Batch of 2 targets.
Target 1
Amino acid sequence: MLELREATVSYGKVTALHRLSLFVGQGQVVTIIGANGAGKSTTLRAISGLARLTSGEIRFQDARIDNLAADVIVSRGISHVPEGRRVFPDMTVRENLMTGAFRRRFGPEVDADLEQTLVRFPRLAERSQQLARTLSGGEQQMLAIGRALMARPALLLLDEPSMGLAPVIIDEIGSIIRSINQTGVPVVLVEQNAELALSLADYAYVLERGRLCLEGEAASLRDNELVRTAYLGV
Amino acid sequence: MLELLLQTGLNALYAAAYLSLVAVGLVLIFGVMGIINFAHGELFMLGAYVVVALYSGLQMPFVLVAAIGLVFVGCVGILMELSMFRQLRGNPLGGLVASIGFLMVLQALVAMGFGVRMEHVPPFTQDVIILSERVRLPVQRLIVIIVAVMLLVALWLFLKRTKFGWALRASAQDKEAAALQGISLRTTSLIAMFIGGALAGIAGSLTAPLISVTPTMGHSVIVAAFIVIIVGGIGSLEGAVLAAFIYAFVHTGVTTFLDGVIADIVGLALMLAVLVIRPTGFFGSADRA
């Protein structure tokens, strides 16, 4: 349903992403792992329209999207949870969630989705009138994911959801991602935590300095010698 | 003495009311677009000249003229967005320079149309509420206060309770994250420019009979508005309203008891003091500035 063909992104003379081809199928969890600066975030930013391709193309549901503005791509069904959560600090939890549904017509359906999101994330329900800036890192991550789900996406992009979180919370985020995928939403997961990423994903791409260096079934990559030494640390 | 204080308080309340309208628009535009709109004082001036043309000139009813002032200057705000700021997106300094150019164009157009002179705008009502021998509140001033309060409450409700209000606040807090929710900066900028222009316009229209109307009248208003948004904390609407009150009370008080020039100096000193003691202003935070 999502396909990158030889996607290249350059910032000035620096090539952040070099001819990456990537495919996400219906209902899959696909992960992109790699070190800092490997081009993982750039890949997601290119898909959601925050970064422009210098060459190549991106197709989503059989249509090219690489020339669309970020706010239009949201309407096409792609929701991006950016690195660092980026919740709106001076808006309440409830207001943050509602902005996620901005492209939809407000009414009973959106209200029902809000209720459902608060049921799914009970910690957000308790804090629904609190400003987002007062939440813990894990709660902000849940809020960012909940906000993205309010758009009813056909594809979810997650950038480093485990960053800076305690192991217990990382497990919780992991099971949230799994449960979202079980509702049929494909997920592209970018992670430095390769262990978490490979345990969740069906298929994985390994990037190094903007280039694809390895790809394959997540299960087989877990046993790959290079991945084990470079990213899993075993 | 008590009566003089009361009278000064009423005068300050009136000044705070129209200053709040101007400053809040300036803050909104800066928050959403990152542009310091130097032409904001001229939008206030345009509101006053709508009254000169339609009320003093064509003798249309004042209520209608004030409503036209609101809508017309709001549309000038939209024109500024479409013709200049949209082209200069991502270049805040360019936006600032363009707004300075635009203020000169507006001043020149008004000067060509009406002449460089002080306009006489007849009062729309002569009624005065007499609270005591020496404490009087002209109904014209009372109306400025009431309308300002109503519009500020309406703006607050819009920002806190409506979809597009949330979109505006989201854009102001994090443009990129807002885009990822499908919020287009083109839409929120248009709304911010309309509201900012409309509030400055109605402030100018309502105060036209009470102040001296000239093509360069925007200067003193923009200076006061800048002091207000710096004291209040750039980016904070609540801070702007609070600071408008503080500034108006200080400025009006010093004008009454000493004189106007000293009041201007004290106003600027107030801004300097706030910048030294609390550089982010009363309500500002470092990460938002």
Target 2
Amino acid sequence: MMFYIAALSLIGIGLYVVLTKKNLVKVLIGISIADSGVNLLLISVGYLKNGTAPILEKGLNKPMVDPVPQALVLTAIVIGVATLALAMSVVIDVKRHFGTVELDKVIKMMRGGDNGDA
Amino acid sequence: MRLKYILAWIFVILFVGVVAYSLQTEVPFGHDLTKLAKYYVDNTARETGIPNFVTAIVVSYRGFDTLGEVTVLLLATLGVIGILPWEKHKKVKKAHPVLLWGIRIVFPIILLVGVYIVIHGHLTPGGGFQAGAVVASAFLLYMVSLSAHLDLESFAFTESIAGAGFALIGVAGIFAGGAFLYNFLPKGNLFDLFSGGIIPIVYILIGLKVSSELTEVVSHMMKGGAEQ
Amino acid sequence: MTIVNLLIYVLMGLMIVMAIIAAETKNLLSAAIFSGFISLVVSMLFVYLQAPDVAMAEAAIGAALSLAIILFAIKRTGEVEEK
């Protein structure tokens, strides 16, 4: 139960950052915090009391934890860092075009028709 | 202005409370294994011939998913390269001597750890994805400290060879056994290094692909794109 | 309550406090560093949850590569959040 609460707190804090902050880099940091929380939540769903890691050992016959969420989370972590890099490069491009990464200023420039492209 | 923060907190607390309550009632922490998990735990060692069940699921049972996932990785890498193209002539700053000499000792050791992790991926914790991350962090350290330009052409070559090899092994499985990624090599004994048929080969290819892709991503984030 | 359980609770509390600091600080550099620390703590919790494969990936990626990507982006976009 404590693991659920901790993982959901991480997701909640990441969600709060996404909802209230205006700096795009800060928003992506919030998304990466929420990403860690989601991974922790999935792994703790597969936990079994007194289970061992899902790797067979000679002469050890104990119940194992669920291997399926671990396989899913393993690939999700690697894809998470690649998509984070893609989003960060888009943010760098926004900085190059508008000169700022504050979301409200970017929206104002786009509405005003002045895209600041020098 | 204050209303926004209050609404955000209310939304977050509601979300966390509802999800925590429903999770605790549906799948309480430390619950028994599901049917699917029981099947994997009971039959994986017999069916695939390797002791690491996570590797078995990633490479063998859900190998087609993994092919899709490395494709997502490839597309993300192409996006980063397209947005921040490489720039040849850029001034580099000399690193501190401690970093400069430390990297010469640490870099081969990190590479060796990565190779160990990927080769024993079907016997011990580890495998292609983890080793790819370790090797990419070694190259990150290399670029940060020595300020040297990596030869990205060879990374792209390695990446495409590994990706094509993964797909070709999958297609060869269709001709050998009638299914994509069918395990057509002999399985060997359970705890041996050379066991599991195609699983170690595919995981080594995944390791090469992931490491070269992550290295390209990090180097383009570091040096790519024109300065303002 | 064993000593391991106590350590796990301390780590969880530390993790949540670091997440709140990362959310509230105006300096993006410290927010990035705290998010790297969160990844490290999460990978320790993965070891307790019997997931060594995932812990290895999270430690290598969350604490090194992800942090490096965020830091390179901050270097190009400025490190202070306005307002």
